[in-house]
Structure formats: structure tokens, C-alpha cells
Fold:
Amino acid sequence: MPGPFAGFKWLALLEDWAIFAEGFITTILIASIGLALALFLGIVFGVAGAAPNRFGRICNRIYIEAIQNTPLVIQVFFLYHGLPHLGVTLPVFSIGVMSVGVYHGAYIAEVIRSGILAVPRGQLESAYSQGFGYWAAMQHIVLPQAKRIVFPPITNQAVSLIKNTSALAMVAGGELMYQADSWSSSNLYYAPAYVVTGLLYLSLCYPLSTYAHYLEKQQEVAR
Structure:
């Protein structure tokens, strides 16, 4: 009986390499656009969470608690199965971008809020004395200073976001994990499929993870 890593299984994978390439590219696209959405939501809700206005802080907590305390898979299923009942039907690609973007936006919002609070309060008060409003002060004074603080954890969130695109395999998202599942289930060549899939995820995540560690060490040296 041939083993899980038999040579003919690897040859079959090489013949069908385009399937994995397609999933790899789709994963990159979903992760890139999803990260842009996560950064936008993270900045908006992170700034709102540090605002003196109570309404902004309440919106921040509702968003963060609702998203962080429910599994990503449940959120994907809600968008995929729930929205059609509300008369909204989206392509699976859009569902993937929305799900990982909204999910990681909640974590990035907490990172941004913590970074803002780490900036000395006097910076914001000085901005007020110069006639800046809260949002203008954040844009021009506080966030540029908080950037160096928040960049390492945001890079780590990017790594998690890439890995979490695999949850879209549950709804035929077309990304890397879905393609690996589909290909291996059709011929039972699971071992080569998942080894290659793991290496492809590693090729995306390891450089970002290494860069995040580098930034953290730079921060420690700066202190």
C-alpha cells in the first residue's frame, strides 16, 4: 500500500500546480483588501474609543465586544447564509474580504486605541490650544506619534489575517485552503496537498512575522 508521501502523489500535484497557484493568488488578494478594510475600521473605531465623546466610546465597545467574542467562522456563515435572507447577495470573494476585514478591524482598533493612550496627554492638549479639533489633532499630532508604537502589533495582525482566510474554505471561498481541500478530496492525496499549502502560507506569514519581531526589538532598543 503506497504511503501518504508516495512519489506519484507529488507528481500529480505538480501537474495540477495551477489549482494551488490560483488559490494562492486569491488568498493574497483577499488578505490585501481585507487588511486595508481592517486598517480603516481599526483607525476609525480606535480613535473613537479614545475620544472624550461618550458616544464614540460606546460604538467602539459594541463593535469590539461583538466581533472579538464570536468566532470568525460564525461571522463568515452569517454573511454567506444570513445576508441572502435580508435580500443581499454578495460574491464569495466580497464575503471573504468583509469577514476578515471586519474581524481583524476590531483587534486593530484596540491596538490603535492603546497606541493613542500611550502618547502623552499633553500632546492632545497642545493641539487643542492651537485650535485643532479632536479628529484633526488625531490626524496631524497624535496618530503620527502613535504609529511607531502600533506598527509591530498591526504587523502581527496582518499575519493572523492571512492565516484566517482559510476559514473561507467552509463556504467555497476559492482561496488556498479551499483549493487544497477540493483537490485532495478528489484523489485522496492529502499529505502533499497540505504540506504544500502549509509552505505557501509560511512563505506569506514568516517574512511578516520576522519583520514584526524586528520592529519590537527596535522599540526595546529605543527605550
